[in-house]
Design brief:
With about 250 residues, this protein is an alpha+beta fold. It folds into two domains: about 100 residues, Rieske Iron-sulfur Protein, CATH 2.102.10; about 100 residues, START domain (Alpha-D-Glucose-1,6-Bisphosphate, Chain A, domain 4), CATH 3.30.530. About 15% of the residues lie in helices and about 35% in strands. The chain has four helices and 15 strands. The strands form four sheets. The chain has a five-stranded antiparallel sheet, with helices on one face. Strands 5-6-7-8 form a four-stranded antiparallel sheet, with no helix packed on it. The chain has a three-stranded antiparallel sheet with strand order 1-10-9, with no helix packed on it. The radius of gyration is 22 Å and the shape is globular.
Length: about 250
């Protein structure tokens, strides 16, 4: 599972409320995900150009985000607009934070680090989505995907023995279904050996909010346990290996 100019989810949409921010990573790059007061989401490099302070430690002020260290404020395009120590200064256009592409689909916030990335191929979910949980595991995205492909989903609204079907529906996005239930699992490669999985239910909120979310949260936590505790390979003792060879 590569990054390059591929889109990746970096948060569940509901986790970033208007006027808030959060730090995260994508392939080793530090990012700030924030939402302005009107609800617009943004993904930027998580570094103030002044002294390198993380912008995710700062504060959202309307459609600006302000650095915690000296209060420098940046507009939704990443341009510095206000320096408290010099309130009358016309801020140079060169003081700007690198910003990344942004889309919201399938209940997740998506970004691509390359400016020439093609369009996001995740289709809008017409039935809506219900957030479940984001988990963070100490393994590569490929290892986490392998564990997912071997998992079994206990459905919420169908017979418990319904067949589990798992398919990649877009780069970094899997669909896991059983019976009438369908989960979407987005993969975020934080680094070579750490991965985030963002999970939503593809379905109507009036059906799944509450008990449905709790049901599938148990599945998500179980998936995390299986990823972090893979079956140990049994290595036969030399004497047993000789005996089996005879």
């Amino acid at each position: 599972m590569t990054t390059g100019n591929t889109w990746h989810p970096v948060s569940l949409s509901h986790a970033i409320e208007p006027g808030t921010s959060a730090g995260t990573r994508l392939s080793g790059e530090d990012l700030v995900v924030w939402r302005d007061k009107s609800g617009g989401a943004h993904v930027w490099e998580d570094r103030c150009p002044h002294r390198g302070m993380r912008l995710s430690f700062g504060f959202v002020r309307g459609d600006h985000i302000a650095c915690l260290y000296h209060g420098w404020q940046y507009d939704s395009g990443g341009q510095c607009r206000y320096i408290p120590a010099h309130p009358d200064l016309e801020v140079p256009k060169t003081i700007k934070v690198p910003v990344y592409l942004i889309e919201e689909r399938a209940g997740m916030i998506w970004t691509a680090l390359a400016a020439d990335a093609g369009p996001l191929t995740v289709a809008a979910d017409e039935t809506g989505t219900v957030p479940v949980h984001s988990i963070y595991v100490d393994c590569s995205a490929d290892a986490a995907a392998a564990a997912l492909e071997n998992s079994k989903l206990v459905p919420f609204s169908a017979a418990r023995d319904a067949e589990t079907k798992i398919a990649a529906v877009a780069p970094s996005l899997y669909a896991v279904s059983a019976g009438h239930d369908r989960l979407l699992v987005g993969f975020q490669s934080l680094s070579e050996q750490r991965t985030a999985l963002h999970v939503v239910i593809s379905g109507l909120p009036e059906v799944y909010q509450g008990s449905g979310q709790a049901h599938f949260l148990n599945w998500v936590l179980g998936l995390r346990y299986r990823i972090e505790n893979p079956p140990k390979k049994v290595v036969p003792s030399p004497a047993r290996a000789v005996a089996e060879a005879l």
